[in-house]
Amino acid sequence: MYLEPSPGEAGTQNILKMAREGLRAELTTALRQAVSAGETVRRPGLRVKTNGHFTTVTLTVQPLGSEPVVAAESQDFLVTLDEAPLPDPAPVALADHAGSAPMAGTDAQALMAELRAKEVHLQSANDGLRRSAEDLRSANEELQSVNEELQSSNEELETAKEEMQSVNEELTTVNTELQTNVEDLSKAKNDLINLLGGTGIATVFVDLQLRILRFTPSATAILNLIPGDAGRPLLHLGSSLVDYDRLVPDAQDVLETLIPKKVEVQTRVGAWYSLRIQPYRTLDNAIEGVVIAFVEITESVQTREALKKAMNNTGWPWSCATRTMPSP
Length: 328
Known about the structure:
- With 328 residues, this protein is an alpha+beta fold.
- The protein folds into three domains: 1-85, no CATH class; 107-161; 200-311, PAS domain (Beta-Lactamase, 2-Layer Sandwich).
- Helix content is 48%, strand content 20%.
- The strands form two sheets. A six-stranded antiparallel β-sheet has the order 5-4-9-8-7-6, with helices on both faces. Strands 1-2-3 form a three-stranded antiparallel β-sheet.
- The longest helix has 99 residues, at 101-199.
């Protein structure tokens, strides 16, 4: 009689939405007072629209439980709707005979009670609106603070983006310069390799610990080198030289004294070389090892030996006096 399903919502259990006309406002006010005061609230003489007519009921909202609950969401309430008893026929008849004055008094009291209930409802609604306004104001201030923080973060991100773009441009420039330097170094290395290979001079570069750093292809036939010998000590290598085993001591002497050495050596196949050992100097004049070079002098040695043999056969002395020409 007093509750009906809420239109447009299936399965709702909200009693305020289900309350019929004449009950919803009073029920809302009574529940608010029961929650705030924690005591039973009664609303007598309510006119609730039931199936086609109005019924006078007494509304009672009673908190359940003997102890007060701190959280209002966990508090239970008992809502009771009692239909008011019908008035006694005799007094009603008397009132009819007496005129409309008693009836007017009863209507005035009902109107005053309804007016008081409306005032209480409006006061409760105003309190709720005031609290909602305060909550909205607080939420608005928080949103403004968050917005300012977001703007500050956005500015910082823009600054960081500009810095990153600047760093990226610098890195691009440095990368271009490095790429150019790598190309120049590659060309210089190719030129050096072709130069050393074109001269035919067997050359070996060793560091301060007399470890092999690199060598030219023509040096493989003299010192029995292979590509995997880079990094090996010079002492561990074998050679095809005849009657010369001072390669390592001579290289160590050049490192200690910085005085180049030159000696003629012969291989097992009869080839003669001029062995030159000199310090390896950098552009800063720092010593970082030695350079061992073999220059082939086989033809020169053979010519010298043939000349020596011819002189021995003719009996010519090795040293001849200088002939003075007469004056004209």
